[in-house]
Amino acid sequence: MNDLRRPQPNREAALVPRLVPRSRALLLGACVCASALLFALLPACSDDAPGPGNAGEVINGGGQDGTGLVDFAGSSDGVDVSAADIPPEPGTFYAPCESNSDCDSGLCIESASGKICTQTCIEDCPSGFGCVQKQAPDGDVIYLCAPRFLYLCDPCDANVDCNDSAESGNVCASFGNAGSFCGIKCSEIEPDCPGGYTCQAIVDAKSGLKSHQCIREGGELCACSVRAVALALDTTCTNSNFYGSCTGVRQCGAHGLSECLGPNPRPEECNGVDDDCNGQIDDFAPNASCKSPINEFGQCKGKLVACENGKPVCDAEPAKPELCNGMDDNCDGETDEGLCEDGLDCTKGKCNTDGSCQQVQLSGTPCDDGSICTAIDKCANGMCIGGGALDCDDKDACSVDSCDPLSGCVHAPASEGFCADDGNPCTQDLCQNGACVHPPVQEGLACADDGKACTTDVCSNGFCTHLPSDGQACVEDGNPCTSDVCKGGECSHVASDGGTCTDDGIDCTTDVCQGGMCEHPAASGAACEDGNPCTEQDACLAGACKSGPYKSCDDSNPCTKDQCDPQFGCSHSNNDWALCTSPHADCPTGVCQGGTCMSKPNEPCETEVKVDLCGSQPVQGLCTASGKCTPVKADNGVACAIPCNGICFKCFGLQICFPIGP
């Protein structure tokens, strides 16, 4: 029996010419009636009578889809490979290849994941492939199965980047600044895009035409295919920000799709470069700022008034030494600073208009009143006033804190009170002679839980101890074949045999606890399923499922081949051209077609036909596939209704005169 998971060779198709017509040619019938004496039986003419060997007929090999192959699904090409449990064998359809000689068909083509072997076709191909016209290695024109999604999501700049030589329906779709990527034409009514893609309406920015294309869901950017990386495909992209937009390139490489490789827009400067990518060089704003050359006094700001040979021309004056004149001479943002200071905290020197100095009394600014026991001193009308008492708290619970006007903060030892907790629940925290001490608490008080179910937690001599608590239940170990109880301060798991435990899911075993473990001894006699759809009444024997007798797949139809596949069960394929008994009484000799018994065409039969103007008589006929006996001659030598010096015959309803004599 053939393995239906693998492509089967189409041996009969090898007999078909390379150039296969897409539709069967119409054979024109011509009927010639001869002398009644010489041609008593004239066969009927048909326009493509059924049967092997007729002109224009294609003999096809035996795959389920009419191609000699089962479908492939789940690949990076959008191809259906779900029916394949193992990779295709070398040389067969979809197997990797380097040249035509690597393939049984002699056809090695490109796919998104690399070169693969393909096959010739008439109309149908596996999912994800289309039957397209190509030129064979010997120069002949053939039809072969090519990936429909070869260009899907490739970086592009024009529609021609997304279409084969015989295609034009795929569109290079824009993703804005990110670049443009290939879509694949799809049907809005019956979309067939691969997973992760949807059939979306796209307007071609260049032609303005609307079409439906397979596009990534949610606007997600495309990843580079193996083919795109090998060809280093790229697309034009844009870097944009507040200052403008600059053009760059994104390219498929070893690490996938690159970022947009190109300049980022920045403010236009006088440097001979188009910094903001607007097509103009050194087109700075009218209010652009600039600075004078720096000197020992500083640097002053001004406006850019011109740009000469990529260098700015600035109207800023050079920095000068600070003078008592109400101006910021050195351009540091302050006026007349440091020229009239008297060194006091609560006054600020200020230049008069005549260049003399005056002292302004300050209020609210920090100062120092000269006392070390005051804090937050502030100016009030030119005088420094002390704030509140200095905080001498050293955060030590076992000291008494104060401030000495000469030495500052003083910290005397304390002999009572509580101090900082040492974190031990089995000690006290007390001050003694300025130190924090930690004597033990009363024996037997509860302390911190150690997290163990088999201990009791109590204080002993200033430490937290954890005494065993044997005999009580403890944490389940998840084993149904043990009992969980404390012993020696630890959780022990004692075997408990005889009980039912976890089912192993096997029909032919018994699940029982033995020695603290779940065992599965073999069983016999129980019904089971051996996984073969072609057997029935399967039963357990010594722990294994023994297959029963093979079931019958006979459907009582002489026009089908009845067989059973261990993977798919009963099947009934058409037994075309086998002889059978037709249900039509006039034409009982039958032949199988499409699983049905039909009368065999062109078998002789007799019928009585009313012949206009020529009388009524039994005449010879030929059977049709529908069981109808069709007359092929009607004559009895009577006179014709039309002038005729001879004998009248009727051939398919036409009166024909055969002259007698001169």
Question: Explain this structure to me?
Answer:
The chain starts with 107 loop residues before the first strand and ends with a strand. Among the domains are: 155-257, no CATH class; 560-599, no CATH class; 605-659, no CATH class. The strands form 18 sheets. Strands 5-7-6 form a 3-stranded antiparallel beta sheet, with no helix packed on it. The model is unreliable at 1-75, 80-84, 611-615 and 634-639 (pLDDT under 50). Strand 42 (646-651) and strand 43 (654-659) form a beta hairpin. By secondary structure, it is mostly beta strands. 20% of the residues are buried.
Features of the shown structure:
662 residues, mainly beta, three-stranded antiparallel beta sheet, disordered N terminus
What level of helicity do the residues show? under 10%
**Quick check: average pLDDT?**
78
Q: Are there runs of 5+ residues with pLDDT below 50, and where?
A: 1-75, 80-84, 611-615, 634-639
Estimated share of beta-strand residues: 25-35%
List the helices and strands and how they pair.
Elements: E1 108-109, E2 116-117, E3 129-135, E4 141-147, E5 155-156, E6 172-174, E7 180-182, E8 184-185, E9 197-203, E10 210-216, H1 226-230, E11 234-241, E12 244-253, E13 256-257, E14 289-291, E15 301-308, E16 311-314, E17 347-351, E18 357-361, E19 378-380, E20 383-385, E21 399-404, E22 408-413, E23 430-432, E24 435-437, E25 455-460, E26 463-468, E27 482-487, E28 490-495, E29 512-514, E30 517-519, E31 539-541, E32 544-546, E33 560-565, E34 569-574, E35 579-581, E36 589-593, E37 596-599, E38 604-611, E39 615-623, E40 629-631, E41 634-635, E42 646-651, E43 654-659
Antiparallel strand pairs: 1-2, 3-4, 5-7, 6-7, 8-10, 9-10, 11-12, 12-13, 14-15, 15-16, 17-18, 19-20, 21-22, 23-24, 25-26, 27-28, 29-30, 31-32, 33-34, 35-36, 36-37, 38-39, 39-40, 41-42, 42-43
